[in-house]
Amino acid sequence: MRDRRPPLFGAHPTEPQDSDYDAEAMEKENDRSISDMGERVSMLKNITKGIHDEVQGQHSLLDNMGMDMTGARG
Q1: 0.70 exceeded by pTM
Q2: Average pLDDT estimate for 21-27
Q3: Where does the T-SNARE coiled-coil homology domain lie (predicted)?
């Protein structure tokens, strides 16, 4: 991003930057950011699936314990 403050403080404007280069550089940076975000989303999905599986296992264990306790009383 071009700094627009120098002309406000009396500095002479610099030559304009190549907007095609800036757009291409920004596009590459966006592509990298999207790729990084995709990797993080995939990692979070795997973590979430692991938590889900663990909760399901714990829930099943508690159900079985409840049935065992009911049978022990009866």
Answers
A1: no
A2: 91
A3: 24-74
